[in-house]
What we know:
Blueprint: E1 3-9, H1 16-27, E2 30-37, E3 42-51, E4 56-66, E5 71-78, H2 90-104, E6 108-109
Amino acid sequence: MPEVKRLKCSEKTKxxxxxxxxxxxxLGAEVACHEKLLNDHAVLLCxxxxxxxxxxxxALSVMMVDNGDCxxxxxxxxxxxxxxxxxxxxxxxxxxxxxxxxxKAGFSEV
Length: 110
């Protein structure tokens, strides 16, 4: 089943570009998409990683927005299931890894 988390950071410690690089480096996943949007006020990052527990790739999309006062992020882990869409917790695990990276930068769940 898909896993979605919403995060917010009131005290910015890093730029969106730095956060995207941190996520890519610490997750060690394959980058499917890294797009800067809205004049660098938003970043879309799509990653995938192979999980042996479900014998498939799991996808993670991260949308981060800097609205001036704070930064917000949405993490969505999905795919990886077989025909029954059972990922054996791989989606949650991928999201949890990204959540830890962003928590180090001051983000917290909303």
